[in-house]
Amino acid sequence: MKKKNFKKKQDNSNLNFFKTLLTSLAIILVFSILPNLVSFIKNNFKSNEVVLNSSKQSFDEILDKLNYYLCIHIENQMNAGADVIQIFDSWAGLISEDFLNKYCYEPNSRLVKFCKKNDIPSICFPKGIKKNYSNFNNFVKPEGINIDSEIDPLWAKENLKNVVLQGGLNPEILLGTEEEIFAGATKYIQTFKDIPYVFNLGHGLLPETDPDKVEKLIKFYRKS
User: Which is the most buried residue in 75, 124, 134, 190, by most CB within 10 A?
Assistant: First the structure.
């Protein structure tokens, strides 16, 4: 694959508009969905257990092609003005531990290596793999890792090293009172106050979330 320059356009009003909206970090996150959902569907089509069958070789070829095109997508997003690539592996928690290495760690690692080769900052989000986050981090070695709301922030601080931590706050907390929201946010802010940390949710906003509460949470964080 031909290496691109990723030169930012100087006169890009849309990019500047979105950067203004996103908090003081001014980071654009571009989401690349890993192929593990395809893996899960393939391996569970006729069984409740993850199994490998006679089509393994052809399926691995599909994963190779997906990786190739995801790298092209990352290149295009960087050329369009993105600053950071966030790799959402939202279904990683559904993969059997026996196959986490093959269908979670390795695909993520390939994309992260591509990003590093091209000087692209990357954040990984292997949602739902619980304490295997530690193994994931040691294997993949991303610049940043997003934790989900099932991960104890203190455990993350003690076990996820040499990486910028992000997220963790349960999106459901935004359905509660202001006191509950601020208390939940404070837990993460205080736990990670002395290490590199990007304040964020443990996954996306729920459809019923009141935008006013999101605004109040952002203002609370900025004043903390």
Answer: 124
Do the beta carbons of residue 38 and residue 55 sit within 8 Å? no
Asked if residue 79 lies in contact with residue 6, where contact means CB atoms within 8 angstroms, the answer is yes
pTM: 0.78
Domains of the chain plus CATH, in order, are 25-168 (3.20.20.210)
Amino acid (one-letter) located at 13: S
Rounded to whole angstroms, the Cα distance separating 223 from 205 reads 22
* Sequence-separated (6 or more) residues with CB below 8 Å from residue 205: 171, 174, 214
Exposed/middle/buried for residue 204 (C-beta within 10 Å: 0-12, 13-18, 19+): exposed
User: Under a CB-based contact definition with an 8 Å cutoff, are residues 201 and 161 in contact?
Assistant: no
Q: How far apart are CA 204 and CA 47, in angstroms?
A: 30
In tens, the pLDDT along 154-180 reads: 999 999 999 999 999 999 999 999 999
- Residue of 150, 145, 149, 153 lying closest to 189 (CA atoms): 153
